[in-house]
Fold this sequence. Notes:
single chain, about 40 residues, mainly alpha, about 65% helix, transmembrane helix, Methionine and alanine importer, small subunit, transmembrane
Amino acid sequence: MSAAAVVMMLIAMAVLWGGLAVAIWNISRFRGEEPGSVQRDL
């Protein structure tokens, strides 16, 4: 593989794994209560 392909692959992996890590961190630090029911007019 060329150097450009390797760099693009590393960037894509960093974005995907970073997004997964941030999502897990966000879920784990959520301490609030779920809303009972949401009433909205559309």
